[in-house]
């Protein structure tokens, strides 16, 4: 009896594995196993899609000490990375060159209402 139950369970398992998937999720999420949060339709200024801004490294500092150059700030005499405009962070606490350019540009002339409120720097200069 036990052998018969085991045989039936193995037969069912083999049929489930060998059959076509019921809900093929890879068609929903592309070639990714997880959804990245539907970043292209979020109403947000910070997105995981950072390549249009030129950022190639978002999880490490350009200059620093420790894991991902992000535990201690850049020390005197330490050589920074050569492609510093591709890093979001300079070290553990400071944004990088390209991130500062984006922050400065959007502070001077806002692109969204949440960039500067009630006035941006350009509007203040014309008062």
Question: What are the defining features of this structure?
Answer:
signal, lipid metabolism, 127 residues, 6% strand, 3 helices, GDSL_esterase/lipase, two-stranded parallel sheet, 2 strands, mainly alpha
Summarize the structure.
The protein is built from three helices and two strands, in the order H-E-E-H-H.
Spell the H/E element sequence.
HEEHH
**N-to-C terminal Cα separation, in Å?**
90 Å
Largest sheet properties: 2 strands, parallel
Number of strands: 2
Shape field: elongated
The main sheet orders its strands as 1-2
Low-confidence sequence ranges: 25-31
Range of helix content: 25-40%
Overall SS class:
mainly alpha
- Report Rg: 25 Å
- Give the averaged pLDDT, no decimals: 74
Which range does the strand content fall in?
A: 5-15%
């Amino acid at each position: 009896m036990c052998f018969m139950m085991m045989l039936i369970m193995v037969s069912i398992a083999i049929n489930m594995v060998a059959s076509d998937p019921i809900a093929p999720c890879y068609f929903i999420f592309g070639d990714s196993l997880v959804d990245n949060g539907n970043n292209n339709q979020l109403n947000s200024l910070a997105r995981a899609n950072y390549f249009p801004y030129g950022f190639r490294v978002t999880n490490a500092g350009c200059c620093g000490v420790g894991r991902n150059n992000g535990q201690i700030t850049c020390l005197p005499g330490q050589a920074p990375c050569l492609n510093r405009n591709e890093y979001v962070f300079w070290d553990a606490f400071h944004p990088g060159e390209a991130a500062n350019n984006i922050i400065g540009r959007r502070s001077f002339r806002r692109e969204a209402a949440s960039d500067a409120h009630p006035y941006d720097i350009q509007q203040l200069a014309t008062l």
